[in-house]
Amino acid sequence: MELEEMVAIQLEAIEVILNHILYIRGVYPAQIFKKRRVYNTPVFIVAFPALSSYLANVLKTVQQHLRKNTAQFRMEITIYGNESDHMESYFLEMQRIQADPAEDQYLMEYEQQLRTALYKFADRVKHLPKLDQNAKFKVRIHTTQAAFTELSHDAQYQEFPWLQSNGSPLQLKQQQQKFSLLPLSRVDKVGLRMEAHIHN
Which intervals hold domain HORMA (predicted)? Predict the structure, then answer.
């Protein structure tokens, strides 16, 4: 399988998971999502233009990391009320692995793992309290200093710049109290190992 094909498959999975989090947790009204069928299961994708554009730019950056064959990076989706009011964080830990071209040639196991991850997520979060109406979200990408420097000097990202974070609400919360870590699922097909976790 060619690198571009692998990246496209991996990026679609990340897009679906990101949208799934926003939909299932009710960060936005259900009316701004449209139903699609992916991995033989119904998923909901944002259809509101401004939000779609933001997510597309986030995914464009993730795509760059995948193309550059970044060995390991982490994507954090934080839901919060205000900058100091952290509610939940969702982490996608991504690590490049050696793919066997003959293994799972038709992506059956890959799709099954992702379908399982989506159902597990919905099941795990249904017991969490409903979010406040003022809930917002932000996306952070945890990567190396070298990757950040390269990204910040790339002309194609000047219209959607990434800023270096001085610490997240989760880090502040960790200093004050304990938090729970709920493993969702692990996908290790198509040259990418991806593990999903919830911190709340």
Answer: 4-198
Determine the Cα–Cα distance for residues 109 and 125; give it in Å rounded to an integer: 24
**What CA–CA distance (Å, rounded) separates 151 from 199?**
27
Provide the residue range defining the domain that includes 68.
3-199
pTM: 0.81
- Residue 7 CB burial class (10 angstroms; 0-12, 13-18, ≥19): buried
CATH code, 86: 3.30.900.10
CB 182 within 8 A of CB 126: no
Burial of 129 (0-12, 13-18, 19+ CB in 10 A): exposed
How far is the C-alpha of 64 from the C-alpha of 173, rounded, in Å? 31
- Judge contact between 88 and 25, C-beta under 8 A: yes
Beta partners for 78? Answer: 89, 138
User: pLDDT tens for residues 72-112?
Assistant: 678 889 998 876 678 888 888 877 666 665 666 777 888 88
CA 72/CA 69 separation, integer angstroms: 9
How many structural domains comprise the chain? Answer: 1
Structure tokens at 50: 């401004």
Could you tell me which of 33, 14, 53, 10 has the C-alpha nearest to residue 141?
A: 14
